[in-house]
Every structure is written in structure tokens, then in C-alpha cells.
Amino acid sequence: MTLALVLASQLAYCQSITEVIDQLKALPGAESQVLGKDMVAMLVANIPDEATKNTMKKVEEMDMVQVSNASEEIRSKFTDIVKSLKNSYDKVAEETEGEETMFMFADNDDEGKPRHLMIGVVSSNDCQFICFKGQLSLADLEALGNMK
After folding, report:
1. What is the rounded average pLDDT for all residues in the chain?
2. How far apart, in Å, are the Cα atoms of 29 and each of 32, 34, 70, 102, 114?
3. Which residues, 6 or more positions from 99, have their beta carbon under 8 angstroms from its beta carbon?
4. Looking at residues 90-108, what average pLDDT do you find?
5. Rounded to an integer, what distance in angstroms lies between the CA atom of residue 37 and that of residue 40?
6. Taking 90 as the threshold, does the pLDDT of residue 44 lie above it?
7. CA separation (Å) from 46 to 31, 40, 42, 66?
8. Average of pLDDT values for 117-135?
């Protein structure tokens, strides 16, 4: 009985990527977009950096949420939602540079290979979240993190 309660509470505590994206989309001023494989291919054609271009060729889909000109309250809520990913996914990094904080998470399969890489960025004005879906590796995070 105790084991069943522990498992049930753990499952209830986990959030799917979709749930997190839905929470971010619900924030005031949030805009979202999903780029399928064809749209990602168009984006890849305009990337000058070869490392980033090669990484982006592995991306099958991108889910993005952005809040421009976000108030401090919205930035705080956005940050809390993104940080909640640590309850379900592997936190790869958290970096702060000036007024910008970047959070990186990975969703790994049973063999430890990432299925999704997630990057959340909160700056003094804006908030962005991108979920990259595809056959990516943790080594690809650097190229994705440097994408402008």
C-alpha cells in the first residue's frame, strides 16, 4: 500500500513537456509557435554557423513560447514554470550572464539518449522557451544555446 502511494504521488508530481508549454502559453502576453520539419529546414538554410546548422538539421520539430516586454511578475512565473522541469527531466545547466538566465533540460530515453532538449531564457524584458525534438545529443546543446 505504501509503495502504491509513493508511486502515485511521483506520477502526479511529474509534468509533461506539453503541460509545461501549455502553462507558459497561458501567461499574459505569451505567443507560441510550432515549427515542423519543413519550417525548421527553411530556418536551417539561413544559419551562418556550420556547427549550429549541422545540429539544427537533426531537429524534427520546435515548440516555442515567447513573452516580450514581460513584467517582473510574469518573468518570475515563467522562471518558476521552467524550473519545474527539474521535477521530471534532467537539468543539464543553468547559466546566468548579466540580467539573462538560461536553463537547459534534457528528456532522455531508456538508453540515456536525449529525445528532447529544452532551453528557457529569461532576460530583463523577455522570456523564451524552446523545446527541440529530434535525434539530438547533449553535445548539441552548446550549438542550440548559442543560436540567435
Report:
1. 83
2. 10, 17, 8, 20, 31
3. 123, 124
4. 89
5. 5
6. no
7. 23, 10, 7, 21
8. 90
Q: Does residue 5 have a pLDDT over 70?
A: no
Closest CA to 106 of 122, 86, 124, 126: 86
Rounded distance, CA 37 to CA 26, Å? 25
Task: Tell me which residue of 116, 118, 88, 113 sits closest to 103, measured CA to CA.
Answer: 118
- How many CB atoms are closer than 10 A to CB 128? 18
CA distances from 24 to 3, 28, 67, 91, 118 (A): 33, 9, 9, 18, 13
pLDDT of the residue at 14: 46
Amino acid at 94: E
**Amino acid (one-letter) located at 13:** Y
Under 8 Å between Cβ of 78 and 24: yes
**Cα 124 to Cα 100: distance, rounded to the nearest angstrom:** 7
Please state, in angstroms and rounded to a whole number, the distance separating the CA atoms of residues 84 and 64.
17
Backbone angles phi, psi at 62, to 5 degrees: -130, 130
